[in-house]
## 1
Amino acid sequence: ENAISIKNLVKTYSNGKQALRGVSLDIPRGSMFALLGPNGAGKSTLINTLAGLVNKTSGQVTVWGFDIDRDPRNAKASIGIVPQELVFDAFFTPLEVLELQAGLYGVPKAQRRSMELLRAVKLDDKANAYSRTLSGGMKRRLLVAKALVHNPPILVLDEPTAGVDLELRQQLWSYVRELHAAGATVVLTTHYLEEAQQLCDRIAIIHNGQVVANTDKETLLEQA
Ligand code: ADP
Ligand code: ADP
């Protein structure tokens, strides 16, 4: 069964821009999946549709077997999204950011769960600092922790290493690999072939709002 199944997904923004032109894509459970494509290809629009941040124009999307139109709550509970932008309330502390998210998802023992995640992303020493004092890399890690608060089976990262230095990129990759090894389905968007190649077992290429290739990594490399 698929972690995510997308059929004929179309998104036309209200200015007329067709960001997705009939995307169909199945992402198997347990895979480490890359959505590879240049800037403007439609990757964020696709991710934001899964996250409930963009209203699709037409098409069908199921997440962990739940249709996002008919069963949006279960669909949302099955996915954790790490957005591209490092945006959250700078006046909250990391611990508060996570507790708030835990509250939204009805996670029991919110404080304990939040501290556990802060330790996992090595931010426990910043638990009570204001978020505006965090470096870019720390913010990225906090957003990963936030995406994982409700323990979703699917983790989606939108351009996780954009603007991230080499050291943090290595840290992030090794943490994501651990999560995958522990059973998570991981989906990431990137415009670096190298990142897709090194991390993922399947790669779909998105270009101009359409999926133009979708194969396992070895096949893609043979064709290249
Ligand atoms: P929808 O079609 O889903 O209602 P809108 O077209 O209203 O979405 O756009 C949502 C927001 O995105 C608006 O505030 C708009 O200004 C902004 N926006 C417009 N063009 C772009 C773009 N190329 N990239 C990112 N954001 C954009
Ligand atoms: P990617 O993540 O692959 O860079 P996006 O999904 O951000 O691609 O954008 C796909 C296309 O849709 C681009 O041409 C972008 O300018 C446009 N776009 C993104 N958001 C909006 C918006 N809110 N309103 C209008 N156009 C948008």
## 2
Amino acid sequence: KPHIRLQIQISLFGDDDRLIVAKDVTRLYQLEQMRRDFVGNVSHEMRTPLTVISGYLETLVDHADELPPKWRRAIETMAAQASRMEALITDLILLSRIETGEHTVDDSLTDVDEMLHQICHDARALSGDKGHTIDVNILDNRLLRGDESQLRSAFSNLVFNAVKYTPAGGRITVTWRTDRDGAHLSVKDTGIGIDPIHIPRLTERFYRADPSRHKDTGGTGLGLAIVKHVLLNHDGNLEIRSRIGEGSEFTCHFPRERLVERVPEAPVK
Ligand code: ADP
């Protein structure tokens, strides 16, 4: 028998009076679960045929110079769109897995220092001849308890977004620091910025601040939704600050209980 889910709201009046409202949200919860499963299953089923299509298209692209110019363009466009669709399906599968909640979180120890250096290395390749300056500051060398692959997806989405939404020559600064409140990973850029009216909705699936400003960034529109759910799975949250034309800063906050001291390596005998 399924568990019953209740949503409880407590309002305080004066010193002693309380109004307690309990709402049965079991059905809503089940529907949400069905939606997630459906999206996950459809994405899975679409992946195989799409892989076959992309495979053949890639072969055709490799032999493009043997084709008439009109066909060449068509085939290159199809290959590019197929790879966009693959990225979308990969993100949909990832999101539906992450959304199922804390049960899927693998509590391993993540070396944030090493992970951020790898991600920034890949980000420099993505930046290519746009020549962004990408700096990493590691101000605490403790490890973070959490699912390494989920954390990698979240952090790389933030860093790759910074590259995508920052014009050539801009600066991206990635900082990992801790204080009394916990651990904080911030990704700051000198990019196009975001109008404040969009900020509360940015982590919704497929929400885009201003589609006309960035048609060609190649994103799936799911990146920040993934970041949000990864952080929820790690008892964390995302803070977004931005100014149009000046840049943005995305900060992931984690509770300090997730920090773990590094064990010094045993001396080699
Ligand atoms: P997308 O695939 O469109 O990048 P995301 O979910 O990663 O999807 O981001 C949602 C929207 O948030 C983006 O379409 C963009 O409008 C805005 N955004 C995200 N990161 C940045 C950034 N660093 N600078 C400016 N806008 C950003």
